[in-house]
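User: What would this chain look like folded?
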Amino acid sequence: PAGHLNSRSQSPELPPLPPGADPVKNYILFPNPASTTVKVQFDLLTESAVLFRLINTAGQQVYQQVQRYGPGQVIIPIPVSRFAAGIYTVMLNINGKVYFEKLIIQ
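Assistant: Here's the prediction, encoded as structure tokens.
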């Protein structure tokens, strides 16, 4: 209820994250295939540093971005028009949890 700003109870929608819990929900990559920009979207349950890497089929990292985000919906636009067409691996490292997705650049 309103008026209890000094109460120390956690808000019901964001309880503290237990250690080892998954900090991410609803992770999607779109559009896929992509030609100009791909968007990485997810809901972050706790403030985290997000490391995004794009890896080509030869295993080489072609792009990297690191940024801190607070809890809530995060959308990271990644420009991909300068990369050669092909299949890439998106690697997302959030709070030590690693997520892999295939991305087709056309």
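The CA atoms of residues 10 and 16 lie 8 Å apart. If you want, I can go into more detail on any region.
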